[in-house]
Amino acid sequence: MTDSAPGVEMLDIFDDLGRHLGIKPRDAVHQSGDWHKVFHCQIVTVRDGVPVLVLQRRSNHKAAFPGLLDLSAAGHLAAGEGPLDGVRELAEELGVRANRGDLVLLGERRLIDDSGEGLLNKELTSVFLLRDDRPLVDYVLQTAEVDAVFDAPIEHLLALFAGDITHMDLVGVEHAGSDAATEVSVRVSRVDFVPGESYWVNLFIMCERLLRGARPLAI
User: Fold this and answer.
1) At 6, is the pLDDT very low, low, confident or very high (cuts 50, 70, 90)?
2) Per the database record, which ranges form the Nudix hydrolase domain (predicted)?
3) Are 121 and 30 a contacting pair, CB within 8 Å?
4) What is the model's pLDDT at position 8?
5) Is residue 1 pLDDT above 60, yes or no?
6) Contact 60, 66 (CB under 8 A)
7) Under DSSP, is residue 62 helix (H, G, I), strand (E, B) or coil?
8) Is 10-211 a CATH 3.40.50.10330 domain?
9) SS3 category, 191
10) Domain residue ranges in the chain
11) Rounded to two decimals, what is the model's pTM?
12) Alpha helices in the chain (DSSP H)
């Protein structure tokens, strides 16, 4: 085990075949381009009969993709954690305390990109869906990570990413859960989303299938 200073986030690292190699501090993992594990969870619900995704807008203070729309909650899995341990990200970022048994696993996604945290980002991402019907005003946002949440109709998202429309309007809540909570409306296009068009489209389709009870579900 690698020793680290108090408060340093330690991650498990893996080789190209997924074999565990050891533990490193998060900044070193991103500098050396090591495979590491990440948790993603997309919340879905129905508002007035319309299937929607709950999207977060990343804080402008984030090193990776500041100010862009992202799926509901995401974060690194700490050394020794399993995929479902990532449920803490829902509580930390959104104030959503979910039962592990309610999360629907889509599978593991491999991603290599330049996220802004280091030279190379190589993620083994466990992707989950969660049905949660609370209104956006009941979310409690971690301001260092998330500055707003939005309802996004799945039909409009699919049209946007297919190129059938060039923009869509979203209604959401900035600073939800604080005294500064404010309802906001924004007009967005594809460039306002964290990169990964094929991943987004797959998520949209899987969310729609989950809401109508269709199977199988996979990423």
Assistant:
1) very low
2) 34-174
3) yes
4) 81
5) no
6) yes
7) coil
8) no
9) helix
10) 10-211
11) 0.94
12) 26-32, 87-94, 154-162, 197-211
